[in-house]
Amino acid sequence: MTGKIFVVTGANKGIGYGIVRGLAQQLNGAIIYLTARNPTLGVAALQNLEKELGDKKKSQVIFHQLDITDENSCQKLAQHLKETHDALDVLINNAGFAFKQNATEHPSIQADITIGINYYGTKNICNALIPLIRKGGRIVNVCSQGGVMNGNYAKYSKELVDRFRNISALKISDIDQFVEEYKKLAKEDKRKEGGYPDTAYGVSKAAEIALSLLQAHELKSKGITVNACCPGYVDTDMTSHKGPLTIDEGADTPIWLATAEEVPNGAGSIYWPSPVELEAPIFPPRLELKVPELLEIEDNF
């Protein structure tokens, strides 16, 4: 991975920060972009990282502002990478958002914001940066088991589940329609009547998983590997610090997918063979955790 260019979104804290920190310690001579929406927080994170790692840092870490919900911001980063490096090797889409379980905002507001960041934001940055990714490059989308449509954490109608069973027949427009239907039902407060769960987070992550699998299929011919993964229940602001895993443990699988010599491709991934159901453990396979610990998950995860 010497000389490789990495971009990590949402990296000023939490799992994203852990990913950057892990990459900087494990890789020799890479260039890692720590991106964040807020420049003040991003610069502070970079300064803290430099102080924390000291001479343990083996790669260069650079801050660049990025708001994945802003297409202009995404294009500015793309332009910088093109002009400075001419290409990109690895994109790790970690940026995400979840309302707390006791949030009082109307369901339509929660839907607009959550889906706007987790699904449309991820799609924005992918659209901007995929043209720069070299053959042999990778995309890692940090998702959640909360997005599994036939799992234990979100209930969908049979019609919706059946619609997503054949991922190879889906198009991006189908995923857009899926989230837009949810947003409309949330505005009318008729989510359950429409076959959707209450959780906007789960819907946004189901869409992100489906997007990941479509990307894997479409980009395979270009030599780009795409995977979605669940970091586990991590001690972060998003989980109200209830998760048993450290941010380094949460960063472990994304780092592995980004750097290991041989990893699966999302088109037949051991992580999410479809957004409907799972055929393998949903938590990081490189972490030896007991099943009871894995099942203690809240809806906002």
UniProtKB/TrEMBL annotation:
It comes from Meloidogyne javanica (Root-knot nematode worm). InterPro entries: NAD(P)-bd_dom_sf, SDR_fam. One of its GO terms (molecular function) is oxidoreductase activity. This is Carbonyl reductase. It comes from the Eukaryota. Belongs to the short-chain dehydrogenases/reductases (SDR) family. Signal peptide: none annotated. Coiled coil: none annotated. Pfam families: adh_short. Keywords: NADP, Oxidoreductase.
